[in-house]
């Protein structure tokens, strides 16, 4: 699945294709099947489709479209009765809506939701016409229902040429999550384990950040955490930049982009990519490969980032050529030179019968090790690193379950406190008959003593028994859950035939924007960074504030995407 950013994931799940079994082929599909059809209205987006041979054959669902039980696409409409728009919503397929007279969402209404124009622009029998308000039977729910999720994110979409809007909706899916997201200016007991620095399918970084603190009061629909490319729950695919449309010493010729050095210094377009590097130990004809720190002909300096099992430490800063996982492979008997005979005589068999096949950092790569996973075949003895990873995971599971129990137990005793406060006790827990329970009395008792209280009211005694049974049952349930997860962790991994062990090392690589990188706006205004200029060399406004980006003004007229100018004005 495409996991470049949240938008690309949603779009991938909402894709509609005319290709595949029982469908068309690219070679035989003509212009007619690729074209926009009147029945696409509110069901298939007329904007978002790939450029190239798949144009018109692969589409996206419109924002509010859904499939019915027969697989037909349906679009929502508000019911109109005698010129009055109701809040009743009906979903209709293209066949069902054909006879209806459908007004647009922008039709003018008064305070009582009565259509007030003498003639209303409508769709009827797949044609655009005008009708009297009393003839209207349905109304669009929103102007956005015509386009897909990606196209609806383009501000001033109606001011952009369709070709450029197509590019804009496609390029938003390619946006790499930045270090700090910046939302656009124009635009029971549950434990939520946040995903921290995890690799996506596109090697980008999935990292969630909590937005609430301990003690905050939250309610339904409140945002509790941000993920990649989100800022306070709002989609934030890029950064808000101060733009100048002007020629600048030829640096923005032919859609080139001139960037300020401040953008690089402030890490506005810095991204983190997570690379997965895999080392596999197999059973060969000459014997098993071994993952070890005892590697022939390698100095101490090259091994200082490895543990005793031969696997790199988490947190180690590594560069090109550094050893991540030490591995030796048996090699066949060859004719020995006198030097090798001497080495064999001094150091024994090990010195000559294995060769170094360690996993190293690829050329041109530099980063930080953020995670290591060790998978061992069932029946093969686990090394010290695998055991320490297993122990760490078990500790994490136990910590989560204990926290869950603490919250459940706390809520139960709070309910009991409110029920028992001011009630008369018959005895138990060292209290005299006829005593009145107060908060001070309850605070002086351990939680286990609460269940020994005998209350004057039978209903309270029953409540105490139920609470005790609930807490015991919950503890047993969580213990069973822990044992089940422990059993799954401790059993061997199901690996391919001949594979004894797999070690996966995850490397976080930080990349700053540089000349040659592609940048794009939401209106199909794409370009390549040509130069990064010092702040003092950038053009500035009347107040002396320098701009962040200089774009070529010739990129607007011929492309007919005036939306970018309007977005720039509104952003100011």
TrEMBL record:
<dbReference type="Pfam" id="PF00562">
    <property type="entry name" value="RNA_pol_Rpb2_6"/>
</dbReference>
<dbReference type="InterPro" id="IPR007121">
    <property type="entry name" value="RNA_pol_bsu_CS"/>
</dbReference>
<dbReference type="GO" id="GO:0000428">
    <property type="term" value="C:DNA-directed RNA polymerase complex"/>
</dbReference>
<keyword id="KW-0240">DNA-directed RNA polymerase</keyword>
<dbReference type="InterPro" id="IPR014724">
    <property type="entry name" value="RNA_pol_RPB2_OB-fold"/>
</dbReference>
<dbReference type="InterPro" id="IPR007645">
    <property type="entry name" value="RNA_pol_Rpb2_3"/>
</dbReference>
<dbReference type="InterPro" id="IPR015712">
    <property type="entry name" value="DNA-dir_RNA_pol_su2"/>
</dbReference>
<feature type="domain" description="DNA-directed RNA polymerase subunit 2 hybrid-binding">
    <location>
        <begin position="151"/>
        <end position="571"/>
    </location>
</feature>
<dbReference type="GO" id="GO:0032549">
    <property type="term" value="F:ribonucleoside binding"/>
</dbReference>
<keyword id="KW-0548">Nucleotidyltransferase</keyword>
<dbReference type="InterPro" id="IPR019462">
    <property type="entry name" value="DNA-dir_RNA_pol_bsu_external_1"/>
</dbReference>
<feature type="domain" description="DNA-directed RNA polymerase beta subunit external 1">
    <location>
        <begin position="77"/>
        <end position="142"/>
    </location>
</feature>
<protein>
    <recommendedName>
        <fullName>DNA-directed RNA polymerase</fullName>
        <ecNumber>2.7.7.6</ecNumber>
    </recommendedName>
</protein>
<dbReference type="InterPro" id="IPR037033">
    <property type="entry name" value="DNA-dir_RNAP_su2_hyb_sf"/>
</dbReference>
<keyword id="KW-0808">Transferase</keyword>
<dbReference type="Pfam" id="PF10385">
    <property type="entry name" value="RNA_pol_Rpb2_45"/>
</dbReference>
<feature type="domain" description="RNA polymerase Rpb2">
    <location>
        <begin position="1"/>
        <end position="66"/>
    </location>
</feature>
<dbReference type="GO" id="GO:0003899">
    <property type="term" value="F:DNA-directed RNA polymerase activity"/>
</dbReference>
<keyword id="KW-0804">Transcription</keyword>
<dbReference type="GO" id="GO:0003677">
    <property type="term" value="F:DNA binding"/>
</dbReference>
<comment type="similarity">
    <text>Belongs to the RNA polymerase beta chain family.</text>
</comment>
<dbReference type="InterPro" id="IPR007120">
    <property type="entry name" value="DNA-dir_RNAP_su2_dom"/>
</dbReference>
<dbReference type="GO" id="GO:0006351">
    <property type="term" value="P:DNA-templated transcription"/>
</dbReference>
<dbReference type="Pfam" id="PF04565">
    <property type="entry name" value="RNA_pol_Rpb2_3"/>
</dbReference>
């Amino acid at each position: 699945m495409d996991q470049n950013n949240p938008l690309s994931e949603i779009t991938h799940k909402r894709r509609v294709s005319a290709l595949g079994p029982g469908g068309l082929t690219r070679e035989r599909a003509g212009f007619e099947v690729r074209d926009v059809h009147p029945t696409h209205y509110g069901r298939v987006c007329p904007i978002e489709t790939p450029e190239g041979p798949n144009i018109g054959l692969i589409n996206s669902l419109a924002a509010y479209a859904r499939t019915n039980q027969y697989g037909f696409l349906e679009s929502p409409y508000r019911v109109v009765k005698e010129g009055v728009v109701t809040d009743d919503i009906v979903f209709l397929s293209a066949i069902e809506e054909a006879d209806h007279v459908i007004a647009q969402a922008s039709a003018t209404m008064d305070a009582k939701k009565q259509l007030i124009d003498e003639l209303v622009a409508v769709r009827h029998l797949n044609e655009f016409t005008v009708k009297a308000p009393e003839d209207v039977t349905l109304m669009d729910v929103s102007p956005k229902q015509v386009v897909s999720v990606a196209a609806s994110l383009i501000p001033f979409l109606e001011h952009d040429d369709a070709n450029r809007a197509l590019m804009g909706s496609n390029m938003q899916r390619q946006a790499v999550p930045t270090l700090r997201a910046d939302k656009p200016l124009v635009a029971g007991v549950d434990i939520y384990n946040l995903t921290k620095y995890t690799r996506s399918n596109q090697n980008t970084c999935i990292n969630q950040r909590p937005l609430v603190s301990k003690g905050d009061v939250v309610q339904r629909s409140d945002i509790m955490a941000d993920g990649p490319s989100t800022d306070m729950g709002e989609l934030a695919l890029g950064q808000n930049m101060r733009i100048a449309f002007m020629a600048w010493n030829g640096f923005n010729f032919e859609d080139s982009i001139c960037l300020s050095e401040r953008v690089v210094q402030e890490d506005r377009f810095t991204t983190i990519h997570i690379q997965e590097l895999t080392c596999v130990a197999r059973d060969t004809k000459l014997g098993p490969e071994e993952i070890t720190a005892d590697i022939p002909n390698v100095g101490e300096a090259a091994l200082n980032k490895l543990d005793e099992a031969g696997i790199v430490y988490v947190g180690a800063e590594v560069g090109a050529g550094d050893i991540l996982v030490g591995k030796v492979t048996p090699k066949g008997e060859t004719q020995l030179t006198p030097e090798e005979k001497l080495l064999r005589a001094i150091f024994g068999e090990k010195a000559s019968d294995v060769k170094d096949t360690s996993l190293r950092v690829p050329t041109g790569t530099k980063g930080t090790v953020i995670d290591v996973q060790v998978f061992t075949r069932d029946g093969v003895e686990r090394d010290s690193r695998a055991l320490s990873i297993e122990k760490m995971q078990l500790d994490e599971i136990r910590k989560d379950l204990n926290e869950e129990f603490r919250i459940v137990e706390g809520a139960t005793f709070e309910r009991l406190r409110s029920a028992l406060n001011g009630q008369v006790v018959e005895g138990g827990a060292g209290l005299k008959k006829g005593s009145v329970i107060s908060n001070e009395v309850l605070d002086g008792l351990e939680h286990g003593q609460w269940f020994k209280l005998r209350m004057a009211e039978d209903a309270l005694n029953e409540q105490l028994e139920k609470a005790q049974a609930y807490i015991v049952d919950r503890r047993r349930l969580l213990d069973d859950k822990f044992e089940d997860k422990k059993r799954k962790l401790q059993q061997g991994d199901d690996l391919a035939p001949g594979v004894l062990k797999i070690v996966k090392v995850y490397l976080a690589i930080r990349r700053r924007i540089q000349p040659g990188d592609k940048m794009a706006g939401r209106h199909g205004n794409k370009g390549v960074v040509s130069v990064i200029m010092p702040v003092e060399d950038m053009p500035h406004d009347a107040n002396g504030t320098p701009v962040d980006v200089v774009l070529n003004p010739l990129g607007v007229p011929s492309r007919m995407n005036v939306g970018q100018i309007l977005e720039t004005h509104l952003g100011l």
